[in-house]
Specification:
- By secondary structure, this protein is α+β, with helices and mostly antiparallel strands.
- It has 17 helices and 22 strands.
- A six-stranded antiparallel sheet has the order 3-2-4-9-6-7, covered by helices on one side. Strands 12-14-15-17-16 form a five-stranded mixed sheet, with helices on one face.
- Helix 15 links the parallel strand 20 and strand 21.
Length: 804
């Protein structure tokens, strides 16, 4: 079938030197037919010559098939004559295997087919190009019959040989041609497209195999190209149909070439990219050829080049197959060479003049090739899948074995974890048990020291007392750190979220460490961003203060020269960023995680007690995790360290603090003390009396009540130890005193017990409580608050009734 990109061939050469002889022969045949009887036509008669009437009226004898091309609309008429013998009653047909134009057919001057008057459009193709016309018996004459065919089409027209004969026989010829040219290729195209789609699905499951994609896309494009070729009408108008038909042809050939290279084991990315670009350039080349007026020739050359390239690629595949010596490769090479050979045959057939609508064998050669390749690829996929299943089964066995080993290891880990948890609980229990007994004498010593410092001392005694106070403070800090670790490990500490003034806290902490920094010659400063409204944060202020105190204290302690800066700035609408900078020695990368471990200290292998226990940063990490606030560490050796803490910001109003110390006198304040340890009781009484308090004491509430005299007045404060003899505790004794005194007298629980259940008991009691050893200053602050409250109540009682 000629390419839609242009005429299949030029018009037939002139046969002028034979025209005169032909006319004489035709005349003699017509004269002879009048005097002799010839039997009726019994078999199809093929007419291979005709008279073509030129536009100027001249007549030219041409051989069929005939092609005429020209500019614009081309129209020609053909006259043919044949001897039908006697007129019979059997139906007769006129059959044109290829009438590539609109036409009109007349028999002996009677029109039997007419589509000449229809609007001009694309030339007929497929079934529409094959015309079979019934010839009514009334139009026949005995002997010579004349047929006139007029064709009209844009650019060129083409008329095949004409076949006249009995209806059944001509119909059989037409049907065989239709099957060979239309229905067979359509069936083949459908099968090829389905096979290509199947391989494409496999590729989607195996996206790492481009070979599958090349073949699948090429096969689908091949099937679509075959279907396009046999469509009854042109798919696109004018020259576009031929250009894109040839482009699709080039595309599927390129895809199959890429597949063949991959199948032969040649992975050539640059060549593949070049071939893909070349296939995409096909329409551009053909449109350029159309602009130059050589599109038909360019399309033919392009297709011939693709056939040559296919043979070259197949040679490479054959070489690979020879090396592999596998049946799959050999069969593929044979099928591919057969397909390429049929393609070359079709190209040559379409250049000959014996058929203007020939049967193409390339679609039929595609079917065994695509079937073979699809079978090879699917077989490879199946074998690979079976191999993967085998590997998967082996992997499952290994996984089961490893799972059993892992279960055993997990059992060992659980046992080790249980032992560690048991040891941790034992540690906490030990700390809780030892804490009370160790804190009692330290608490008493602190109280004695507080009482001692109330007395006039000479310079040497004052210095000794100051050193004792420093040692006691260091011991208290260590105990509190151990207690904090134990409480957080036990899950007793729960954040109490509320709004607080972050700037005030920072300035207070900087003032607290100012003397220590000055003593070490280190600059300590705080910087708070201006113009941002209230500097309020929303979290637990007590825990945040503990974190910042540890960070600032560490920075001051480890900075030998330079300074420490505490900065506060807004980071977004909901976050305060706190940074503690120092110019200390810095922390190496290897130690940045270890510094958060318990008892680990950088640069203190001798465990100098003046450097603490190494619990500060461990507490910092525990508290920040408890508060769910991010903490970051940045450090450079020799340049310093920066800790970054992000706290949630709030615009809520901050409630006034009740923990600030109250300055006043405790003279005459009646304090009831419940304590079963004589040493602690004696030290507490000594300290309270040095402040001017009147103390009644006892080991329980009953004993305290017996010590009260009628003239002592109302009890104004109660200080009770938590753990007492027997089954009694300070909380119960406070409740008993309040009941007996018929007054909700303020009470303070002091305890050296750090057991989680005891801490929870004190928290749930609603009473104020402090851990031993209790600093004298904190005890005095609480008593000052009680004295002020008592003074306010007395003043209210003395106020005249009318002014209440």
């Amino acid at each position: 079938m000629p390419s839609a990109a242009g005429p299949r061939r030029s018009a037939s050469p002139s046969y002028g030197w034979r025209c005169g002889a032909a006319r004489v022969l035709v005349g003699l045949a017509l004269l002879g037919s009048a005097g002799s009887a010839v039997p009726a036509l019994q078999s199809p008669l093929t007419l291979t010559q005709a008279e073509r009437i030129e536009p100027d009226g001249s007549v030219k004898l041409v051989r069929l098939p005939d092609v005429v091309s020209g500019e614009g609309v081309v129209e020609r008429s053909y006259r043919l004559a044949f001897d039908a013998g006697e007129v019979g009653s059997d139906p007769m047909d006129l059959y044109l295997p290829g009438m590539l134009a609109r036409g009109r057919i007349s028999l002996n001057g009677h029109v039997v087919f007419n589509r000449l008057g229809e609007p001009l459009g694309p030339r007929p193709t497929s079934l529409h190009a094959m015309r079979m016309v019934d010839l009514p018996p009334a139009y026949w004459v005995a002997g010579m019959n004349r047929v006139e065919i007029t064709l009209r089409a844009p650019s060129y027209i083409s008329l095949s040989r004409v076949i006249v004969g009995p209806h059944a026989q001509v119909r059989a010829l037409r049907d065989r041609k239709a099957v060979a040219v239309v229905f067979g290729p359509m069936l083949v195209a459908t099968v090829i497209i389905c096979l290509g789609a199947s391989v494409l699905l496999i590729y989607l499951r195996r996206s790492n195999e481009p070979m599958y994609a090349y073949f699948a896309v090429g096969a689908i494009a091949w099937g679509l190209h075959t279907a396009w070729t046999i469509l009854p009408e042109a798919l696109l108008p004018g020259i576009h149909n031929g250009i894109w038909w040839t482009s699709l042809y080039a595309f599927f050939v390129f895809m199959l070439l890429l597949f063949a290279l991959r199948f032969a084991g040649y992975a050539l990315p640059r060549m593949e990219a070049a071939l893909l670009r070349l296939s995409m350039a096909t329409p551009l080349v053909l449109y350029a050829a159309h602009a130059l007026g050589v599109v038909s020739q360019a399309a033919l050359v392009w297709r011939l080049g693709l056939v040559v390239a296919a043979f070259g690629t197949l040679a490479a595949v054959a070489r690979s197959a020879w090396r592999q010596r596998s049946l799959d490769s050999a069969l593929l090479v044979l099928a591919s060479f057969a397909a390429a050979s049929f393609g070359l045959r079709d190209w040559l057939v379409f250049q000959r003049d014996d058929d203007n609508f020939p049967v193409a064998l390339a679609p039929y050669s595609a079917l065994p090739l695509v079937l073979l390749v699809a079978w090879v690829l699917i077989d490879r996929f199946v074998r690979t899948a079976e191999s993967l299943e085998g590997l998967n089964r082996e992997l499952e066995v290994r996984v089961e074995r490893k799972s059993a080993e892992l279960v055993t290891a997990l059992d060992h880990m659980r046992a080790a974890r249980d032992r560690a948890d048991s040891a941790n609980r034992a540690k906490s229990s030990f700390l809780a048990a030892a804490s009370h007994d160790l804190r009692q004498p330290i608490h008493a010593l602190g109280l004695y020291l507080g009482a001692l410092r109330q007395r006039p001392l000479d310079r040497e005694a004052s210095d000794i007392a100051q050193r004792m106070d420093a040692s006691l403070g260091a011991l208290d800090t260590m105990f509190n750190a151990l207690l904090d670790i134990s409480r957080m490990d036990a899950g007793v500490v729960q954040p109490q979220t509320r709004a607080f003034d972050l700037e005030a806290m920072l300035r207070r902490l900087v003032e607290e460490f100012a003397a220590q920094a000055a003593q070490r010659g280190v600059r300590l400063s705080v910087r708070v961003a201006n113009g941002l409204g209230p500097r309020n944060a929303l979290t637990d202020p007590v825990l945040v203060e503990r974190v910042l105190r540890n960070l600032i204290g560490n920075a001051v302690k480890h900075t030998l020269a330079g300074g420490v800066l505490v900065s506060c700035r807004r980071r977004g609408p909901e976050t305060w960023r706190i940074e503690v900078w120092d110019t200390g020695p810095g922390i190496s990368d290897a130690e940045r995680e270890r510094v958060f471990d318990e008892f680990y200290q950088v640069g203190n292998p001798e465990r100098d007690r003046r450097s603490g226990l190494g619990l500060g940063l461990s507490i910092v990490r525990r508290v920040t995790r408890l508060l769910k606030v991010p903490l970051a560490l940045h450090s450079r050796l020799g340049h310093g360290t920066r800790f970054v803490l992000d706290l949630p910001a709030t615009d809520a109003v901050v409630a006034p603090s009740l923990d600030a110390p109250v300055s006043g006198t405790l003279q005459g304040l009646l304090v009831a003390m419940v304590e079963d340890d004589p040493e602690v009781r004696d030290s507490m009484r000594t300290l309270l009396e040095s402040w001017g308090c009147h103390v009644v004491e006892g080991s329980d509430a009953d004993e305290v009540l017996t010590q009260l005299n009628p003239g002592d007045g109302a009890v104004q404060a109660v200080i009770a130890d938590l753990r007492l003899r027997g089954d009694r505790d300070g909380i119960g004794e406070v409740a008993l005193l309040r009941e007996r005194l018929a007054s909700a007298v303020p009470a303070l629980i002091v305890s050296g017990d750090s057991a989680p259940d005891r801490v929870r008991l004190m928290q749930d009691s609603g009473l104020a409580w402090l851990s031993k050893p209790v600093p004298a200053a904190r005890l005095r602050s609480w008593l000052d608050s009680m004295a002020q409250a008592a003074a306010g109540a007395a003043a209210a009682d003395l106020r005249p009734q009318g002014k209440r």
